[in-house]
Amino acid sequence: MIRVPGRTDRPYSRHTLQSQMTTQPAQPDTDARHQRAVGASASKRHPRPLGGDPVRRMETPILSLSDQILNNKDGGKSVAPIKRKPKWMRAKLPGGPEFNKLRGVLKEHNLFTVCEEAGCPNMGECWARGVATIMILGDTCTRACGFCNVKTGKPPVTDYEEPKRVAESMRIMVEEAGLKHIVITSVDRDDLPDGGASIWAETVERTREACPELSIEILVPDFQGSDASIDTIIACAPDILNHNLETVRRMYPAVRPQANFDQSLYVLKRCKDAGLVTKTGIMVGIGERDDEVLELLDDVQTQAGTEILTIGQYLQPTPNHLPIDRFVEPTVFDRFKEQGLSRGFVVVESGPMVRSSYHADTQAAGLVERVKAQRGG
């Protein structure tokens, strides 16, 4: 979410709300112990701020999942120790003239980005390249995913003036800080008839009117598979349409209990078939196996034909989120990239520190035109 002048709400990192969400039934191959842990985490998640370095977010939880590894070699009979970050997980401190310029503009105009709120390790590099990420549709999600640190609950009254303010904020960031590429994301809004699709579309349209040279990437929810909502998104014609799968099929009952793997593939396919450049991303190290990652790559290509893929290391936001099963070594990320490219992805960003918006500007700069040319569009 981005906060702009005139708003009365505080930054969402200061809000707290007890989750009242429930989960869908787990699949048969999910261990019963893990089903209980996931159900409890979704219904009893304690109030917490959004995102940030887990080291700075060590408040005492109502329920801790830190001893619940989803994929222990002995079938979950023993507790795996909490792992320390390896040396390859250390991010560089942000800095440099371009970074400082954008930070100064944000501070001057009282604007906030997801990059700051979530403590993204790539913030310095992205800001220096003129890339930032914002979140719309409020700060409260109607779902309770096991990996995500956005608060869960019943969203407040929907702000239908938000698209205008977002567009004005983008104009300021373009004119005063040289912003080149914006990634817009949102919470899930299953409480709205269209899942928020109309606000999504208006935000993109107004931003494009205010900043015609700015490339726009949107990271959207699944809209519960609604064709009407997806078509509303398609009609606003973003430069890149991103919908993250997040994890492999087997892990959905624990990681995305209110989502469906095939439904997410359908979103990607419908957008690709409509002519959009599509993108998806996953986390690794949360309990999946390497062979399952490769199976996911096959599924995405054969069923959705997605062009861009991001793969990054999962990090546990707080003690009551799903724990880290393993820190995936850089050589494995390299292998994932090779396998992704060999299967037909046009761009694969794969590495421990990679997040959805990593090198998003580069992807937009040449890929959109190249992909459309390949399709004859």
What does it look like?
Strand 3, helix 7 and strand 4 form a beta-alpha-beta unit. Strands 1-2-3-4-5-6-7 form a seven-stranded parallel sheet, with helices on both faces. The N terminus is likely disordered. The two termini are 33 Å apart. The chain has 377 residues and is an alpha/beta fold. Helix content is 36%, strand content 10%. Helix 2 runs antiparallel to helix 5.
Cα gyration radius (Å)? 20 Å
- Fraction in helix: 25-40%
- Largest pleated sheet: 7 strands, parallel
Which consecutive residue ranges, at least 5 long each, have pLDDT under 50?
Answer: 1-64, 76-80
Percentage beta strand: 5-15%
The sequence of SSEs as H and E is: HHHHEHEHEHEHHEHEHEH
Total helices: the number is 12
Q: What is the residue-averaged pLDDT?
A: 75
Q: How far is the first residue's CA from the last residue's CA?
A: 33 Å
- In the sheet with the most strands, the strands line up as 1-2-3-4-5-6-7
User: Which structural category fits the helices and strands?
Assistant: alpha/beta
